[in-house]
TrEMBL record:
Protein name: Acidic leucine-rich nuclear phosphoprotein 32 family member
Domain U2A'/phosphoprotein 32 family A C-terminal: 128-146
Keywords, comma-separated and alphabetical: Leucine-rich repeat, Nucleus, Repeat
Annotated source species: Monopterus albus (Swamp eel)
Biological role stated in the UniProt entry: Multifunctional protein that is involved in the regulation of many processes.
Region Disordered: start-end pairs: 147-213
Length: 242
């Protein structure tokens, strides 16, 4: 699926300014351009473009509220200096599986003062001597590199998924609002409760009726058994003829 069509489907009849999360993984970009993604997505906070054939981020629109950017498994080899201007609020950046070979390529990221987590897993730069120490020195604002902090302590789920949880909280709030809007008026609730009580009473009456019928049948069997026993005691074994 091409990028423009995917974005149209992701909108789901919403306007671009209503969208906070956009997932375009495995789509086809046209010459490294994310067609359909414009400055109108001004509220966008999460963008995922995994394996879409990007060679540069130069064509990204200005997304001033973007916090998390997934760019893994593309062919990006440089040009990261534009991120400070286009996405100044970034906290999480995933560049794993790209063509990043040396530290000078990521040096422009020091302009992203809010950047907390950077992922370069499976990039050639990770093979350099003292790679981790040098990256933390180059980007002092980082807390986590490839999922671990300076002391090789793994990032807790609460941190690595912090943004996603934030989105979930927003969704829950929206759901709560919808549920509140759909609540029935007090009068309607009383009517519904009355109907439920009537249904329960009818069910109880049906159960009682069935119980009484069962008791009648059991009583009949008991009476017949008594009659049969009396006849046996009297020595009458043949059926009584009328």
């Amino acid at each position: 699926m091409d990028m423009k069509k995917r974005i149209h489907l992701e909108l789901r009849n919403r306007t671009p300014s209503d969208v906070k999360e956009l997932v375009l993984d495995n789509c086809r970009s046209n010459e490294g351009k994310i067609e359909g993604l414009t400055d109108e997505f001004e509220e966008l906070e999460f963008l995922s473009t995994i394996n879409v054939g990007l060679t540069t981020v130069a064509h990204l629109p200005k997304l001033k509220k973007l916090k998390k950017l997934e760019l893994s498994d593309n062919r990006i080899s440089g040009g990261l200096e534009v991120l400070a201007e286009k996405c100044p609020s970034l906290t999480h950046l995933n560049l794993s599986g790209n063509k990043i070979k040396d530290l000078s390529t990521i040096e422009p990221l020091k302009e992203l003062g809010t950047l907390k987590s950077l992922d370069l897993f499976n990039c050639e730069v990770t093979n350099l001597n003292e790679y981790r120490d040098n990256v933390f020195k180059l980007l002092p604002q980082l807390t986590y590199l490839d999922g671990y902090d300076k002391d090789d302590k793994e990032a807790p789920d609460s941190d690595t998924e912090a943004y996603a949880e934030g989105l979930d909280d927003d969704d829950e709030e929206e759901d709560d609002e919808e549920e509140y809007d759909e609540d029935t008026a007090p009068g309607d609730e009383e009517e519904e409760e009355g109907e439920e009580d009537e249904e329960e009473n009818e069910e109880e009456e049906d159960d009682l009726s069935e119980t009484m019928n069962c008791n009648k049948i059991l009583n009949m069997y008991a009476a017949l058994s008594k009659i049969r026993n009396s006849l046996n005691l009297a020595g009458i074994t043949e059926p009584i003829k009328s």
